[in-house]
Amino acid sequence: MPGIAHLHEGISPSIIHRDIKPSNILIGEGYEAKVSDFGLVRSGPVGDQSHVSSQVKGTPGYLDPAYCSSFHLTPFTDVYSFGVILLQLVAARPAVESSRNNASSHIIDWARPSIEKDSIEDILDTDHSNTRMQHANDAKDGATCTKMCGQSAQEKAYNDSSVARTRGSSKIGR
To answer: Dihedral of CA 89/165/77/15: which sign?
Structure first.
């Protein structure tokens, strides 16, 4: 999403949103997504810093597990959250589902085996796949972004621009 990439790479010092979730993404004219609610923002790392130490803030279900365990805030924190949203869009599932026995499962854990096998069809919402993703390339792009965004902190060979380029000029609700 170009808005998130701009926060991380387009301004100095960079800004980390910390609360990327569906209700903080507004849809503008032409179905262009806009980032909103900057109440939890922090300045990002500067110079040769790899992270900023910070108390964990954000919405459960969208929080990067590496941030939660290390208190190290990086731009990847927002990219992970964006990956959760993309996965919700293609799978039509909530970020966290609770079962009858009060156990909860995260959408990334549910989808990871299929994403790692490149079995996109296993995660697509088949009831609405034609209306949600009208083109196969959109589904492929969404799954690629989700895979990039859902990587663990150790494997995160990403940058925001590459995620934005993968989504290209695709618009929400096409």
So the answer is: negative
| Architecture of the structural domain at 2-167 | Orthogonal Bundle (1.10)
Domain boundaries, the chain: 2-167
Known catalytic residue: 64? no
Question: Can you tell me the distance from the alpha carbon of 148 to that of 8, in angstroms, rounded to the nearest whole number?
Answer: 16
The three-class DSSP label of residue 50 is: coil
Name residue 83's amino acid. G
In this predicted structure, what is the pLDDT of residue 63?
95
| Helices 75-91, 160-167: inter-axial angle, 10-degree rounding | 20
Q: Specify the amino acid at residue 139.
A: A
Phi, psi of 169 (to 5 degrees): -95, 15
Reference 81, options 18, 168, 1; nearest CA is 18
One of 19, 64, 138, 141 is an active-site residue; which one? 19
Average pLDDT across each block of 10 residues of the chain; the chain has 174 residues. List them in order: 88 94 94 93 92 94 95 94 91 86 83 86 73 52 60 51 50 42
Predicted TM-score (pTM) above 0.85: no
